[in-house]
């Protein structure tokens, strides 16, 4: 039987799964944006990501990744349960929920890559119970 993972190892795994999910959601939103507005350069996309309200729904997942990064670099104690609650909320699509939850639901209904990243994150969260 393998040793249980340390909290920091679990946190690294959760972070990596969130980054993969964020990337797929960003790619999906970018494609939606480019259908309407045309192709954007990397610089334009960065500006759009930072300032366009169409991309604002992605901020909760971006902020969670930054929060985890901060905890990992602080090398102090952290509340793993609180992080797991936050990540589980991010992995909960809901047609009647927050703008994030609504767009997340749409993304996993339309993007096979988002479905796979969602599945991987849920599998990881089940292991951390």
Would you mind describing this structure in some detail?
- 19% of the residues are buried.
- The protein contains six helices and no strands.
- It has one domain.
- Helix content is 74%, strand content 0%.
- The protein has 129 residues and is mainly α.
Model regions low in confidence, pLDDT < 50 over at least 5 residues: none
* Sheet having the most strands: none
Net shape? globular
Share in β-strands:
under 5%
Number of strands: 0
Structural class by sheet pairing and helices: mainly alpha
| Number of discrete domains | 1
Mean pLDDT: 90
Order of helices and strands: HHHHHH
Q: Roughly how many Å is the radius of gyration?
A: 16 Å
Fraction of helical residues: over 70%
- Put simply, the count of helices is 6
For the terminal residues, how far apart are their CA atoms?
17 Å
Kindly summarize this structure in a few lines.
Helix content is 74%, strand content 0%.
